[in-house]
Design goal:
five-stranded antiparallel sheet, EC 1.1.1.1, binds zinc ion, elongated, ADH-like_N, about 325 residues, binds nicotinamide-adenine-dinucleotide, all-trans-retinol dehydrogenase (NAD+) activity, alpha/beta, cytoplasm, Quinone Oxidoreductase, Chain A, domain 1
Amino acid sequence: MESAGQVIKCKAAVTWGKNAPFSIEEIEVAPPKAHEVRIKMIATGICRSDHHSIEGKFSSVKFPVIVGHEGVGIVESIGEGVKDIKPGDKVIPLVTPQCGQCQCCKDPRANRCLTIKLERQYGLMADGTSRFTCRGKQIYHFLNTSTFTEYTVVEEIAVAKIDDTATMDSVCLIGCAFSTGYGSVINTAKVHPGSTCVIFGLGGIGLAVIMGCKIAGAGRIIGVDVNPDKFDKAKELGATECINPKDYDKPVAQVIVEQTGGGVDYAFECVGHAETMLAALHSSHFAYGTTVIIGVSASTLSCDPMILLSGRTLKSSMLGAFGQS
Ligand SMILES: NC(=O)c1ccc[n+]([C@@H]2O[C@H](COP(=O)([O-])OP(=O)(O)OC[C@H]3O[C@@H](n4cnc5c(N)ncnc54)[C@H](O)[C@@H]3O)[C@@H](O)[C@H]2O)c1
Ligand SMILES: [Zn+2]
Ligand SMILES: [Zn+2]
């Protein structure tokens, strides 16, 4: 392409500081260096984790930053030494790439690479610099991806090549929401056919959990949300029933335990609050229930150890635990 090797000027949503609104700016995107690729973004989703980051929940996020991590695009140009990706390829940037060489990548129990960490060197590329500038200032990268821009630069291993016929405005969800929710069911909880599942929070993650539970053959899939507008979509995707905690004058966990004859086999927390994490745990069967925390919370989780000692299991899932077995 003509632009290869040149700085590209384009539009991006820059967040200048904690809790600052998105500012649509003209930015400069430098050409990819060795083992990097520059991508023309076509579509991106918005995940609650983008919002948590802008709120300053993660100390690894540095401002000014371009957030967004659930995108899809077309490779515009490649840096020196890039072998498996070429200009024109449709790709999904990866939040948790795998180098395939480090101790974590080689261990089937882990899906967290030690070479390219999620926190990604505090928003800089491997050489300690950024590829983004705006109004003369360096702009930080985010979660190895930064998708709220017309062009982004990522590591060669931080892209997955996808089918040429993929529908771009929906396939972007594989970058986070779908993979996270679906993988939490299949890879982390390992939901079994006929089981009863409850999902707290029916946003992008919770809906993907519902899809996973349906595919795994769960018998009852109970959606929980304080916003009843979420129920139609949840039922369309596989929820067999939905509960609004505001409709009851007792804790929602108690309602679920009563309605399921002792508690669910699998509970998923997809809100990001310590209270809903505990509610999920308490709604799981005391002797064999499994709870998977997916939501991100900055608060401390505290509970009576007897809740677990009775036989419950508490797990968490990062980006759907792909790469783990
Ligand atoms: N573990 C991971 O790898 C991973 C990946 C992506 C997102 N996340 C986290 O997962 C969480 C969900 O993300 P999302 O994008 O689906 O968020 P979202 O904001 O789209 O959805 C959250 C839902 O929870 C509902 N809710 C709020 N308070 C509630 C309560 N007290 N009880 C029941 N429902 C309640 C909201 O109405 C909303 O529908 C966030 O914390 C996000 O940061 C984690
Ligand atoms: Zn996300
Ligand atoms: Zn690795």
